[in-house]
Amino acid sequence: MNTFADLGLSESILKAVSEKGYETPSPIQAKAIPIVLEGTDLLAAAQTGTGKTAGFVLPILHKISQAQAGSHKGIKALILTPTRELAAQIQQNIIDYSKHLDISSLVVFGGVAINPQINKLRRGVDILVATPGRLLDLCEQRACRLDKVETLVLDEADRMLDMGFIHDIKKVLRLVPVKRQTLLFSATFSSEIKAISKQFLYHPKTVEVAAQNTTADRVEQKAYRCDAGTKSDLAINLIHENKWDQVLIFTRTKHGANRLSEKLDKAGITSSAIHGNKSQGARERALAGFKKKTVRVLVATDIAARGIDIANLPHVINFELPNVSADYVHRIGRTGRAGESGEAISLVSNDERSFLRDIEKLISKKIPLITEPGFEPKLWPDRAPTTSEVMKADAERKKQNRQQRGPRSGARGGAKKQPSKRRAPSSNKSSGDKPSSSTARPTSRRRRPDRSSASRRRSQ
Ligand code: AMP
Asked: How much distance in Å is there from the Cα of 29 to the middle of ligand 1?
């Protein structure tokens, strides 16, 4: 299959694809499109940046357009995604690919008014892209019915599980017809993903485009050893010295993202921070500025950055390393997209050395560890601290921070905070200077969230 025409897609779709400038199907598209067209369930391991969105959107559009004459009203395809950004991105792709077709689509997510979404749903849509919490809210309010869904897509399913959406996904699965086509996309095939695919997919065909957990070969990876306290200056130095004009930086916490963004601005580097505490409007403005290059650096927490698709993003900086190695793969997948090359830089302090080791093990590749002159770490003993030593030190540090801050007067929304109550792990959606899910320590990572669906929906 060398061309999109070979895949049997309709003329209108071929025209839209060619107007997007795509010449040939990417490997995931070449493999997935025929499977989706024949109606079989699909379990696909595809990293971000491989073109997976068109891999499911194009055949869905083809099927809906072919069946349109006399077909029923109602949502025919439902695409579930973990974040607002990814949902908006997919919707934009659907608009682009369906521009020569008479197919309606809508995106719904939390954090914005629900009534306009209800009104649009009443007018009828063929394809709905949604985050799980808002979708369930809409279903509860009887604003949307899923009983005509023919194709269900679970996109970035691994991330949805990480974010604690498993119960919401199960609820959605009870609302769609038993007889349907299910397509599950995930960056990795973890045992959890295998388990849910066994439960919800029917004799799926499996497609893997890159070897499991390997990083994109086109991304040049480097790590700088440094002290934690010099990271901001090192990042500023690298951006200035190398004259980078578009850099995505991942930080561990929302406050960390804000702090770094302020420092960058002071150093004359325009930047915006995006994370779960920012309004949808602020996130969209930040992203738009970054895409237009009026903002040079976008500082983001993991979950906020999910779904960001910027053509040819040249540089990604991991301000802190994630302790969940697969998240490193997700992060650096933001660069080196669609055949372009990219560079991923990690700033590694002494207590992150074990994370670096784990990442190298996962990607089966040694990441060159270098030192920037003037930023040599004061603390870098021959023996790297073990993970348990790092966790112990981290717990101690947090305890000291808590003691220094003293009791907090109130939690979000004015409610009194329960001092002993533990909060959910997908923490960059909760308030406070708490690590995002990918940098939370392993013990907390495994806990399933216990926060109410209402609070989760607010933060989606
Ligand atoms: P995705 O993995 O779906 O997020 O896509 C990553 C990027 O690749 C997006 O910017 C797409 O517009 C682009 N893309 C998708 N398919 C192709 C293709 N066949 N040729 C070139 N670029 C593509």
From this structure: 10
